[in-house]
Amino acid sequence: MKKEEIDDRLMDALLRGDCEEDLAEAARKQSAPQLRTWNWRRSFMAVAAMLVVGVTVGFLTNHGQQTENPGALTTADAMPSVSKEEMVQSAERELARLDAEIAEQREIVEEKRKVLDTIVRITGRPYFEGTVNEAKKDGVVSEGPVGGGYRSGGDVQEELKSASSPPAGTSQAAVDRKSGVTVAGSVNRPGLVAGSGELTLAEAIDLGGGPSTFGTTKRVTIYREGKKYQLSPLTNSAHAQEKLYPGDVVEVDQVKAWEVSGDGFADVKRGAKLRPELQGRFRPSAVEPKKNASSEKYGQLVDQPWKSPLQEALSTFSVDVDTASYTNLRRLIKDGSPVPVDAVRVEELVNYFDYDYAQPAKEEAFGVGLAMATCPWEERHNLVRVALQGKDVNAGERGDANLVFLVDVSGSMQDSDKLPLLVESLGLLVEELQENDRVSLVVYAGSEGVVLEPTRMGQGGREKVFQALKKLSAGGSTNGGAGIKLAYRLAKENFVKGGVNRVILATDGDFNVGTTNRDELVELVKTQAKDGVFLSVCGFGRGNLNDAMLEAITNDGNGVYYYIDSRAEGRRVFLEKLMGTLVTIAKDVKIQVEFNPAKVAQYRLLGYANRVLKKEDFNNDKVDAGDIGSGHQVTAFYEIVPTGVTGTVRPEVDALKYQNEAPAIPQNDSPDWMTVKLRHKKPDGQVSELQEFTLRGEAKPWREMESDYRFAAGVVAWGMTLRDALPGKGELVDSLVRDSVGKDETRKELLELVKAAK
Amino acid sequence: MSSIVAMKEERGTGQPAFGQVAREHQGMMLVYARTLLGDETRAREVVQEALVSAWKGMERFDVTRDVGAWLRGIVRNKWKDVCRRDGRKLEFGDEDLEYLESRMAVFVARPAVFDDLADCREKLPEEMGEVVQLSYDDGMKSEAVAEKLGIAAATVRKRLERARGLLRDCLEGIRG
Asked: In terms of pLDDT, which residue wins out, A227 or A512?
């Protein structure tokens, strides 16, 4: 037998517990006939002797004298002998400890008294003057200029008079308008918030559910007694700690259309034309941008419109395996919050689910499948599915891992759905690592620091990592920039050639690095990815996740972004999808489709609104795109109007009546509908490889397609419905999803969401 | 050792002292028997038989020897008997038994091992503590645990294995 097996059986035997029954008694009974009779007298004497001895020893000990010769007494073995000196010392230690405790309590009381004094001082005076002057003196509140676009105090008050009732679960008694603070603007739960005693600005925003998808706490307005003050809790921790008073109204701002991810607020003047290289990187905004007088469009701000191959034969986009939109959506719907149109990234919804795609051929990084059926929501159209399946790398096949956990431990991480969930999720990951994998832990908050040097999993290392994770506690403000540099340095120093080198950033999105350093950081992430150190970003908590910084880092495709809102999701990301999370099998994956105008009159790409590339970007290896991890799947849909089908799509501009400008439909012999080209780089490669696939044949009736296809189409349709891009198809969406759910739990969950979101 | 002295001195009646010794060591004997046999029922049977023999053979026991080892020796003999009776192969060879004996000395020589084990269990990561509790305290089989937690049965077994390893390290740390 192996030693490990023996040890394991021994541990198993120990874990089954102690012996509860008296086996000796049972044994005695079993041998009863052979036992001598119980000698009562001797037993009594023995017991009496023990009692006497016990009392004597006790007596002697209390009087601080040594007991005599312990060896002679059976029970004396169990009694410690304590000298007088030892007793005095022990008492002194106890007193010292109590003194320390008292001193600590005194300090706490002092602090509380100071705070109370300040409050009395402030609120005792005529409200307005006292607060403003007091606050100004402390330099905490700035009466900054408020530009257009911010609603005036009057509007807000008006809106709030008819505001929603207090958050569910709070009794009216608890939330009295006089004692409550109102949180409004781009938050998840606008309305009165109940606080116990004092509320800080950060707490109030948190109670309001945090900023909604496009809200930001970079600019927060406090309305107080008819005046408004602008604070920046995200960048200024003093502002975040600003105390709020009854009757205050807090308004959380919204990101504006012209603010581009990866660029700072300060750098772009409102209304300015975007630099050409920034176009195409917009985040869709709830506020439609003003169109310029010229025909120049602002990149791909909205969903891809219908296009004709005669005008634009090529459709180019970057793959995306992020699924944050789905998990975010799920949360919004479950919370009963309204779903902003632009929170819905259709491709991320489709890609959240698992499909039965064929594994690629042995040497290939991934396989590509093309399928075409009639379009469920417009049967005269066709719906083409492009499916990528990344190679599955088995646990034993991957190289050794070199992981750096970069953990945000700022004060806002304290909630139960943040740091504790984070520690648990990372713990799941650590548990699955192998002996030679290495983990280090870096924290950032105020200052940054290495909490745990790179530690191998074997020989107790794993336990060390667990302990280090458990010790993490939240406090301090955020200073992410220095932390991420440190994390990368650590990763570089312990680089494993041919292995998995990754920085895993865990944060609640409150990732402040200061505007001037933002570009620098995005560059850092890109450069490191070129050298083979990749980034995963895990968002925790509700609300704060939409920070422009996170988007900037992950949008260029050099990082993968997960949103972990529950233990189940944590398990999914770190256990089931672990290989995909850790191992990148292909970098900078781009797709370019050329449509044959002889067969395709119009086409549109569904989703990937953020991922569109210029046609030159396809062959340009310098342009970054998405990465694919082990086992990842990517699904994209094109809706196609075949030539000869008319009247199904309203054109943007009607055809001219008096001039014939319609080009003739070209004829060619090709049976192809389209050619799909794919470029990718090996994880540590610099030059991309090209693959080509063509689509031929006739569209199958969609009802005859396998459930994966129908389900994915259902998800796309649902996403488009939520974006108001597919009106009146609610029934169809329902049946598409329902009929293809099967036994998959995650798919069933979607069905629930579809029902709930109506 | 003092209990043995008392036992010898009480040889006349024997019962109280023997009872004390037995109670002191029965946990250890049961753990040993479980390791050898795997099966709980058989393990208890073996321990009981061993105690009967111990009682009978107590007078022949040499007081300078280690009681624990002596009792384990008896358990071993009973284990062999039971295996022979049931027609099962002996899973532990001589080398294995020697190794096991050395491990017993580390882990189970003192009765407080179960307290130490409880302390070590506290330190387990929650995921592992969970499966340990369900499997051992609640007596659930891997499949049932897997169903309850929504994970694969194989994951449950792996987790248990890992947990046992951690606990072993921890116990060694306390007593080693």
From this structure: A227
Provide the token pair at A336: 């009963």
- Beta partners for residue B146, in sequence order: none
Hey, what are A567's tokens? 């233990």
Of residues A8, A30, A77, nearest to B52 (C-beta): A30
pLDDT for res A195: 58
pLDDT band, residue B60 (cuts 50/70/90): low
Of B60, B67, B140, B32, nearest to A13 by C-alpha is B32
Q: In DSSP terms, which residues pair with A535 in a beta bridge? A: A503, A559
String of b and e for A589-599 (b: at least 16 CB within 10 Å)? bbbbbbbbbbb
User: Mutate which of A23, A425, A463, A743 to test chain B, going by most B C-beta atoms within 10 A?
Assistant: A23
Give the angle subtended at the CA of B99 by the CAs of B98 and B103, to the nearest 5°: 120
Measured between CA atoms, the residue of chain A closest to residue B97 is A6
Which residues on A lie below 8 Å from B42 (Cβ)?
none
ipTM of the complex: 0.89
DSSP, collapsed to helix, strand or coil, labels residue A251 as: strand
Query: Quick one: how far is CA A591 from the chain centroid?
Result: 27
Q: Is the pLDDT of residue A715 over 90?
A: yes
Q: How far apart are CA B73 and CA A503, in angstroms?
A: 55
CA distance A121 to A114: 10
pTM: 0.48
Residue type (1 letter), A387? A
Query: DSSP letters along A637-658, please?
Result: EEEEEETT--SSS--SSPPPSS
Asked if B161 reaches chain A (Cβ–Cβ under 8 Å), the answer is yes
**A428 vs B32, B113, B127: nearest CB:** B127
Tell if the CB–CB gap between A14 and B127 is shorter than 8 Å. Answer: no
Considering CB atoms only, which of A23, A46, A71 is closest to B26? A23
Q: B59 is written with which tokens? A: 């007078």
A323, A327, A328, A334: CA torsion to nearest 10? 160
A123 touches chain B (CB under 8 A): no
Q: H-helix or E-strand containing A630?
A: none
Q: What is the mean pLDDT of residues A385-407?
A: 85
Flag whether pLDDT at A286 surpasses 60.
no
- pLDDT of A124 higher than 70: no
Q: Looking at residue A608, what DSSP letter applies? A: -
Those residues whose C-beta lies under 8 Å from the C-beta of residue B104, and which sit 6 or more positions away, are A10, B28, B32, B68, B72
Contact B34 A463 (CB under 8 A): no
Q: What is the pLDDT of residues B84-118, one digit of tens each?
A: 888 888 889 888 999 999 888 877 666 678 888 88
Task: Check if A238 contacts B (Cβ < 8 Å).
Answer: no
